[in-house]
Design brief:
mainly alpha, three-stranded antiparallel beta sheet, 15 helices, about 5% strand, globular
């Protein structure tokens, strides 16, 4: 059991957390530069955005290999594996996988790349196999990259089409369900993604997998693109509710430093306190259950890609909403209400009720200085 827990922590907490950092340093920062370019029209910002996004798979590969404690040659080789796996996938036609391990559309159907999810699995496999031979021979400079890249290709060829297939159906289900039941799914998606954001796993990485460009193309093909984008907006609502909510209700203990570290950083900082006193998690979670359906039903905020799982971290979530939601008064009013105002007010009200009942006391949400 201890070995299993260690492996789960290594791969689904450490590696996924590193994957989120790789995404932030490439795809996310590229998105931010791209958004600034849209407003300023400064060409160098567009150039940065294009190449930053293009490096997504490579950044993920380096980040994961580094976190797993790989040797330098394995880390550098993992860049190639990550780039390869991020691009490879399958062509899916009417729910059937018709082309295996391709990097572009072949024939009828939708090309669905494995994206960050594929890179995640392929890089882990390649890194672990590469480490088996790293620094074991006198020709390490040749053996390690060769073994790592070959293992990475084999993992990519075998795993990425399957990952594409699974993510296709997951994205299709979410898109379909949100199209049919935007109220119910607004609640479910917002609450679940908000909880994931606060847990020590990466909501950004998960959203990058579910709400990828390939998933959006598949939703368009299926006629559920509206539900797809609304679900992404609900994810933003849930993540913002956790971050802004905790920043607000813990203001007594953490002051302005807590506003910045949680509201623009991450609500994951509260995990230690949540383990000690789980009830402090209820107020932001209830807030997300309210803001999610308001987003899908009233303001119809939309988002896609990794931004859906970032909340107010670096304002990436709101930027994603700005990029995906058509312009109009409702867009800007909804953006402010869903991302900042309502999470703060609702979380404060619920938290004060618990305080009046004696269930929460000052100091329960204090962060380590």
């Amino acid at each position: 059991m201890k070995t299993l827990k260690k492996l789960l922590h290594r791969y689904f907490i450490d590696a996924m957390g590193a994957m989120a950092l790789g995404l932030f340093a490439s795809l996310l920062i590229g998105t931010i530069f791209g958004t600034i370019y849209d407003f300023t029209k400064l060409e160098f910002l567009s150039t940065i955005a294009i190449y930053a996004k293009a490096a997504t798979g490579m950044a993920i590969g380096v980040a994961i290999a580094h976190k797993l404690g790989a040797h330098p040659l394995v880390i550098f080789s993992a860049a190639g594996v990550g780039g390869m796996a991020n691009a490879m996938g399958a062509v899916i036609n009417n729910g059937a996988l018709t082309e295996w391990a391709v990097t572009a559309k072949v024939g009828e159907g939708v090309f669905y790349s494995a994206g960050p999810a594929g890179a995640f699995f392929a890089v882990i496999i390649a890194t672990e196999i590469g480490m088996l031979v790293s620094k074991k021979t006198k020709v390490d400079i040749l053996v390690t990259p060769v073994v790592t890249m070959l293992a990475g290709f084999a993992a990519t060829w075998l795993v990425c089409p399957l990952v594409s297939f699974v993510m296709y159906y997951l994205g299709t289900f979410i898109s379909w369900a949100t199209t049919i039941q935007p109220l119910l799914m607004g609640i479910v998606v917002s609450v679940v993604m908000g909880i994931i954001l606060t847990l020590p796993i990466s909501s950004a990485a998960i959203c990058a997998m579910i709400f990828s460009a390939s998933a959006y193309e598949a939703a368009i093909f299926a006629g559920t693109s509206e539900g797809f984008l609304l679900a992404g907006g609900a994810c933003v609502a849930g993540c913002c509710a956790q971050m802004v909510g905790f920043a607000t209700v813990s203001f007594r203990e953490n002051k302005w430093g807590g506003i910045v570290s949680q509201g623009l950083g991450t609500s994951m900082l509260q995990m230690g306190n949540i383990v000690k006193k789980p009830i402090i998690w209820v107020a932001p979670t209830l807030a997300s259950a309210i803001t999610g359906p308001i987003s899908t039903m009233i303001f119809k905020l939309k988002c896609q890609g990794v931004a859906a799982g970032m909340g107010t971290c670096g304002l990436v979530g709101p930027i994603g909403v700005i990029n995906s939601t058509p312009d109009g008064a409702l867009k800007w009013v909804g953006l402010v209400l869903i991302c900042i105002v309502l999470p703060a007010i609702l979380s404060f009200i619920f938290n004060e009720i618990f305080r009046k009942l004696g269930l929460i006391k000052t100091g329960d949400m204090a962060l380590d200085s």
